[in-house]
Amino acid sequence: MKEEVLKKRFNVEIRKSGCGQDFAYCRKEDLLEIAGCLKNDLKFAFLIDLTCVDYKGYPGRETMPRFEMVYHFYAHDTRERMTLKVPVEETSPNIDSLTPLWRAADWYEREVYDMYGIHFTGHKDLRRILMYEEFKGHPLRKDYPLKARQPRIPHED
Amino acid sequence: MGLETVFGNSFLTSRVDAAVNWARKYSFFQYPFVTACCGMEFMSVWASTYDIARFGAEFPRFSPRQADVLFVVGTVNEKLAPALRRVYDQMAEPKWVVSFGVCATSGGFYDNYATVQGIDKIIPVDVYIPGCPPRPQAVLDALIKLQEKVDRETVLKYKGLK
Predict the structure, then answer these.
(1) pTM of the predicted model, to two decimals?
(2) How high is the ipTM of this complex?
(3) B157 domain-assigned
(4) CA-based angle B69:B9:B90, to the nearest 5?
């Protein structure tokens, strides 16, 4: 059912991953609408997880956007899972927040912001959740220096 | 302590040393600064099988102002470092620090952006306990080593801040 709905309304193709799980790519402009459709019309009422991948330097992805947001949904009624992948450009690292649809997205999006520096438009309280406020940069980005340390109090050797 | 500083390193002070050190080393009040899984092993040191009370150190004080020994049990990250430093600063002299487990000692396998590579970068440490996590026997061994260290101290000198 979801295959037809997503194909007809958003021209989004559902594919199977290597382990047989449904996933689909969508444009970030359509994210809120598709997520709303999944939640309200297709009964994917549960947002399992929301995360980001940094594909900088990844073989075979040179022409694709650097970041990819990944959303996992679950439908309790039909016990189906669904993954939504949204490419995000390095030059404009922002995307619509899912907090209007799921309150649960709040802290996940703060974590993605903290670790990858993706900005979520519409998020009411977007600040770091794991690192401290004075931390500079985003540690899970591939170009964050491996040995960089940012101590809050002076270290003695 | 007042009089000993007047008498200097004499028979009197060495006898006072012996008495004071004897009292100190068998009545450690510990402050458990537990942040990670090492805490489980630390609890078993308190429990009846290993029973740290045999060495007079069974009494945890959850106020640093009432504690003698700071047990740093587990990983300390950069976000937490100011809190650990503050707890140490709040403890009254004389005070000792035990670094419990490999994470507190050197950062362990957490060689990353978030983790302090050993608490001795923040506060002075008296005894290190290796292990991930250390066996309770190793903790008791460290406690005895700390008692030996306390026994060598003298009331003439204050340790002071590093």
Answers:
(1) 0.84
(2) 0.80
(3) no
(4) 25
